[in-house]
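Amino acid chain:
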Amino acid sequence: MQLSLETYLPWIILISYILLLLGIDFFILHKKDRVPSVKKALFESLFFVLNALIFAGIIYWLYQSGLAENSGILSPQKAFFKYLTGYVIELSLSVDNLFVIAVIFANYKVPLKYQHKLLFLGILGALILRAILIGLGLILLHQFEVMTIIFGLFLLFTAFKMLKPADESTTLSEPKGFMKLFRFSNTFNEGNFTTQIAGKKFFTPLMAALITIEFTDLIFALDSIPAIFSITTDPYIVYSSNIFAIMGLRSLFFFLSNMLEKFAYLKYAVFTILLFVALKLILTQWVAVSEIISLLFILITLVIGIYVSIHKKKN
């Protein structure tokens, strides 16, 4: 079967859009290693959210014009809402990732001015890693129908695991295992990943932190990717919503890093969302839930979690 340019056009548009945003982020918004102010961090967060919403319009156009490889026979409206629902799910389920990133930066004593560089490189790694994991997940789903139930049960396990108090000492000590495999220095060498000491090459703590960030992204991907399979198995929608959520999460880090403790009840909202998508996956062969209902449920749950957190904090 001969593949034409139109077959690859949606993917060319997606990758080009992502690379353009990354270029703006790295060369314009963060041209120099400076600590972003709260106001700038909020602006950047809104910038990436706005672009995620703009791409929802592109999704609608691609499926309306027939340019997208529509194996699921999705209407433009369904593709639009599935993308938005997947985006919100990925963004909400990745909130815990912010806590872990903060712990990693604290553990390796990464200066604020170098943190954006690590988050940026983390996105580049996630572009490749998520594509591989999504591809493997879709192959399993198409080969074995029982995988929807297995993914659903895995999400149930993840949901109840969230309610278990985390062992902070374990979280902080695990990244140091990398020290046994490589030679690391205690100097950041002006933001470089390697340095020379007594004629020998050493990795700086920035490299250790980057490896740890990529490893934790892999762990979180194992939770979040099965969740979006409850919404759709269309690879284009799954990957695009996943990547835009990751980009938005990274930009939100600097805005929310000092505010996370205010949202103490947000984890219960995320727990409820996980329960919802897990049951949706398990029952997908017997019960159909529309995209609008899924999106509204997720948004309302998040709003309630944030409201209760702020209300309890005031009291």
Q: What stands out?
A: The longest helix spans residues 112-143. The beta strands are 194-197, 200-203.
